[in-house]
């Protein structure tokens, strides 16, 4: 009875944090089993924990190569962790409850609201049904198209296996691949079908289920919500601007785009612009990019995907609100207006809080790693930002991390998956409403 009361006293952020931690623990134990290893020898606990954390946090950073180190059983464990985290363990619990016609309690709805990053619980159960349907539909279509393409390169059984694994991994922005030797998608850098299907899966999973629902209902409603408009406009802008900048910076680089023809350069530029939106796969060598491109990708990874999606980062809407606040201040306006809607002051403060907490986390972990790891600071900053944004891209540092480095990066992935603000709510004590306000003070800014 007491344990049940203690569980009920947990806040939604705390329930989410415990749920993800439990999934990582179970995944670690399963990946440590000899049957999970291709050689039959158990994988070291730190490597199993890192891989499980990367899968649950939908990151894709790996200290051992997924394709060559794990058996089919290990791949299945990783795939299930990705799918469970992508859908959300509360989503799965809700679906089981609906199947068995159980009532969804208010507490469950509040946790779902936190997990899906929604502003209210209205329509949350209906959204959960759509999340399940949309996920399976996109993953099935991606798996079919990948299977048809790879059936030309490998036996049909392996093509189906690869098609399913990579479709689930890409839609959930997980970044895991089975091609071996840390090559990712570099073998298909100029393949139109693989590139286009991959980018569509990444973008679909990264814009969020609310936006997908809005787009699918557009034919009936003939309008989009403010959230969907902001997400689509910002996502499209970041992808296009990112592709142009990568194309310009890497055009003559013989290690990346220089050896490709015109069409290959365009495909690779767009693919590498889409991937930092927390997908974590690469079709060109990240370590071979020029430093300016690497730093630009760090910015893209820090921004990340959109709320209610399978991606991480501070989110596109947070970045858009901050940009809107800057322009409003420069124009001397009191309100931030987007698509003829005024944003509440609370939205601005939340965006600023998320961005500052995320920046503090990334800089702190980077400074610590700079003392524990033998690598350049840009390489460390890239790794840390990739972990926080749950991206999975690396300049090659991940396999060489020390034990302390692996633990720090795992914790950073965990913080990035939950979100810095949700993690702060989970760790901080619950406070009641303030019954008084202090007198207003004035200070000089800027």
General description of the model:
Strand 1 and strand 2 form a beta hairpin. The protein has one domain. The chain is mainly α and 446 residues long. 45% of the residues are buried. The protein contains 20 helices and 2 strands. The N terminus is likely disordered. The protein starts with a helix and ends in a 19-residue tail after the last helix. Its main location: membrane. Keywords: Cell membrane, Ion transport, Membrane, Potassium, Potassium transport, Transmembrane, Transmembrane helix, Transport. InterPro entries: Cat_transpt, TrkH. It is found in: Cell membrane. This is Trk family potassium uptake protein.
Produce a short descriptive summary.
Keywords: Cell membrane, Ion transport, Membrane, Potassium, Potassium transport, Transmembrane, Transmembrane helix, Transport. With 446 residues, this protein is an all-alpha fold.
Biggest sheet features: 2 strands, antiparallel
Strand content: under 5%
Radius of gyration: 22 Å
Which blocks of ≥5 consecutive residues have pLDDT under 50?
A: 1-7, 96-100
Walk across the major sheet and give the strand order.
Answer: 1-2
Give the N-to-C terminal Cα separation. 56 Å
Total number of strands:
2
As a percent range, the share of helical residues equals: 55-70%
The shape, in one word, is: globular
Structural class: mainly alpha
* Assembly category: single chain
Supply the number of helical segments: 20
Determine the mean pLDDT.
84
What count of structural domains? 1
Organism: Paenibacillus ihbetae
InterPro entries: Cat_transpt (IPR003445), TrkH (IPR004772)
Subcellular location: Cell membrane
Membrane topology: Multi-pass membrane protein
